[in-house]
Amino acid sequence: MASISSLSAEDASLFRRFGFGRREEPPFRCVHHAFEYHVRSNAGAVAAEHLGATITYGELDRRANALAHHLRAMGVRPGARVCLLVQRSIPMVVGIIAVLKAGGAYVPLDGGIVTDSTLAFVLENAKCTLALTLTDYVHRVADFPNINLDEVMKSQDVEYDALEDLSSPDDSCYIIYTSGE
Q1: Can you tell me the distance from the alpha carbon of 93 to that of 59, in angstroms, rounded to the nearest whole number?
Q2: φ/ψ of residue 46, rounded to 5
Q3: Is residue 2 in some structural domain?
Q4: Which pick of 19, 47, 151, 153 has the fewest CB atoms within 10 Å?
């Protein structure tokens, strides 16, 4: 890896002069804090659309709070990792926000293409505590603690308050496994 010492004197001078801006604190400590801020001012706005279905910010927040309570009851806290065995969908977005609200990190895998050996490797290597999955992929994690997101989306009629926020900016948000080097 190159360092500033490998630059010409002129480039090193320019880097020192313009390479560092003033330090600014981000307006939100965690990703889900930014989401919750947006919910407060735009609850009725469409947050996600997929194949003609939509969900508002308010509904997404309500569903994510309900699922986050369930995740917390199952032990998801900062440091916990939750596999998302899904494809792009509204339930996927609910799962992401819920994992973050519970304090965990999500580990996304495309259920339509991930091989069984890769799935097994990621569950073990990432030390996932459970899997959130769509109905089409439940059979792939039948011997692993799992929650069916499609079922969760059908059954959330109870209103939940926001969870106690245990998250900090030092916590992981997600863990990505790629096929690249």
Answers
A1: 12
A2: -70, 125
A3: no
A4: 19
- State how far the alpha carbon of 5 is from the alpha carbons of 1, 10, 19, 21, in Å: 11, 11, 14, 20
CATH number at residue 144: 3.40.50.980
Tell me if residue 63 falls in helix, strand or coil.
Answer: helix
DSSP H helices, the chain, are 9-18, 31-42, 57-73, 90-102, 116-125, 149-155
Give tens-digit pLDDT for 27-78.
888 899 999 999 999 999 999 999 999 999 999 999 999 999 999 999 999 9
Model's pTM, two decimal places?
A: 0.84
162 domain-assigned: no
Assigned domain for 86 exists: yes
Partners of residue 146 on adjacent β-strands: 131
Q: 137: domain range?
A: 28-155
